[in-house]
Write a structure and sequence with these properties.
Structural class: alpha+beta
Largest sheet: 2 strands, antiparallel
Distance between the termini: 59 Å
Order of helices and strands: EEEEH
Strand content: 5-15%
Strand order of the largest sheet: 1-2
């Protein structure tokens, strides 16, 4: 059985992450977006940083 590179478990099916190329199981990523949870986390942080900057700029202008 193949091993998930994220959780290390034996699984029946693996998916390839389109960002980093990791082979992950359906529990360790979003199979519709083709992203492992590690890359999903990076994408979420980038979005949070952008909103944080916008909020700061708006507060500074008021």
């Amino acid at each position: 059985m193949p091993l998930c590179e994220i959780c290390g478990m034996d699984v029946q099916e693996l998916h390839d992450c389109k960002e980093c190329g990791a082979k992950y199981c359906s529990e360790c990523g979003d199979t519709k977006k083709c992203l492992c949870y590690d890359c999903l986390g990076w994408n979420d942080e980038e979005i949070d940083e952008e909103y944080g900057e916008e909020e700061w700029e708006q507060d500074d202008l008021n």
